[in-house]
Q: What sequence folds into this?
């Protein structure tokens, strides 16, 4: 038994490799996981002391455990059996499909990534592009929201920057979970987004099995008290105006609501921008009648590089103001109506708090047929007075500065030209400025030709 044994070098290396893997899997990895788990728990405990709404245990559950819990949920199991019967496939095949959906939907939230990386990135990106402002904000009403209630921010969708803007501005409230579309299902973006707590949804999917898996995840998260953010329009606005709401996620929440367990409070959020980064792509998609648009990578890189160079050389500043308004919360326990009424009421409340910013206001005036700088200034002054009388937020500059800076910006972007004392919209300017005007038309009035 003590006799030496001769082995080829490759076999000896292979044995050492297997031994190292066994040691790591049985002794090293559990210890490392325990170390990082304890560290993460300390970080979360410290965070919860300064967050208005502490991170719920549901959000901190291991992703694998959540996938298993979702896959074996009784209602999902019924949907699996029904799918197998309709499609005439074995139930284990249907189960694997449901589990694939669960893996696709369930996020892998990391508090460290969210608050250490995500918040700093959101702040840097937001402040690099915009002056960020809070519009309507009823602090007293919002501060009375029950600590045990599930808070759901319901937001109009103007730009992909909405995620950055709202995440940064409510970062002191807690960690939000977003529903994001298939645009984000690209590596490595998908992994980062899952770490930040977002979950993917297939907006075009009509399969009953997929809808049931998604519905049960949303319902579990809601019952677990996870703070969420929904975009009921189901996509970016291509016209600037608010789109009619889609009932999907809202209906999942309402159908499973039990006031005896935990109340659900919807907080309407209205966002608006002086300049939307994707404005040309959105207007072009609307003219083509296509909901989907994929800006060419080189166009994005070229545009981003040009803007960065202009910022470095101080040829330009930020794109303008980005603002968020918070509306009157709606308690689901006090709402007596169907899902359609609920969705419409939420959109109505969002619409009332969409901020009226300088460039959209001037765009509205120009699209109304005003053709001189002096007339634009007079109309802007009248709008600002009306908004101020209604106790609504207005641009922080005087009417002359608002009109002058917006006209200069539109001229620089090629949307209008000066001919003698007249302001003439270009063909592209007519489309783009109409897009911006529509975002404030509900507060400033329908676009009609001016008599000035």
A:
């Amino acid at each position: 038994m003590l006799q030496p044994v001769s082995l080829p070098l490759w076999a000896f290396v292979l044995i050492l490799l297997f031994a190292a893997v066994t040691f790591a899997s049985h002794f090293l990895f559990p210890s490392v996981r325990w170390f990082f788990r304890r560290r993460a728990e300390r970080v979360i405990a410290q965070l919860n002391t300064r967050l208005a709404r502490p991170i719920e245990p549901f959000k901190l559950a291991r992703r694998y455990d959540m996938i298993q819990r979702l896959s074996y949920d009784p209602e999902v199991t019924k949907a699996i059996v029904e799918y197998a019967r309709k499609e005439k496939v074995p139930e284990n095949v249907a189960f694997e499909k449901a589990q694939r959906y669960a893996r696709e939907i369930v996020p892998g939230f990391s508090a460290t990534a969210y608050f250490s990386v995500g918040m700093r990135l959101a702040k840097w990106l937001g402040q690099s592009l915009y002056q960020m402002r809070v519009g309507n904000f009823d602090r007293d009403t919002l501060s009375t929201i029950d600590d045990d209630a599930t808070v759901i921010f319901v937001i109009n969708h103007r730009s992909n920057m909405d995620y950055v803007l709202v995440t940064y501005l409510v970062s002191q409230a807690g960690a939000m979970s977003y529903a994001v579309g298939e645009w984000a299902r690209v590596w490595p973006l998908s992994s980062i987004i899952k770490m930040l707590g977002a979950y993917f949804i297939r907006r075009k999917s009509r399969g009953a099995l997929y809808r049931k898996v998604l519905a049960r995840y949303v319902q579990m998260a809601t019952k677990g008290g996870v703070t969420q953010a929904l975009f009921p329009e189901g996509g970016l606005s291509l016209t600037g105006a608010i789109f009619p709401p889609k009932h999907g996620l809202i209906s999942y929440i309402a159908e499973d609501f039990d006031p005896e367990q935990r109340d659900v409070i919807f907080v309407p959020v209205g966002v608006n921008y002086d300049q939307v980064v994707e404005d040309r792509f959105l207007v072009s998609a609307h003219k083509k009648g296509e909901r989907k648009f994929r800006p060419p990578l080189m166009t994005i890189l070229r545009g981003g590089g040009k803007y960065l160079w202009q910022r470095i050389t101080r040829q330009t500043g930020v794109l303008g103001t980005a603002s968020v308004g918070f509306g009157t919360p709606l308690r689901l326990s006090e709402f007596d109506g169907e899902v359609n009424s609920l969705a419409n009421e939420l959109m109505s409340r969002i619409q009332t708090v969409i901020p009226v910013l300088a460039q959209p206001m001037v765009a509205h005036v120009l699209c109304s047929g005003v053709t001189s700088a002096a007339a634009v200034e007079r109309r802007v002054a009248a709008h600002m007075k009306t908004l101020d009388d209604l106790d609504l937020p207005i641009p922080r500059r005087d009417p002359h500065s608002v009109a002058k800076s917006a006209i200069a910006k539109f001229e620089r972007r090629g949307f209008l030209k000066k001919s003698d004392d007249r302001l003439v919209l270009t063909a592209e300017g007519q489309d783009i400025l109409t897009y911006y005007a529509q975002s404030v038309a509900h507060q400033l009035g329908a676009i009609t030709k001016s008599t000035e």
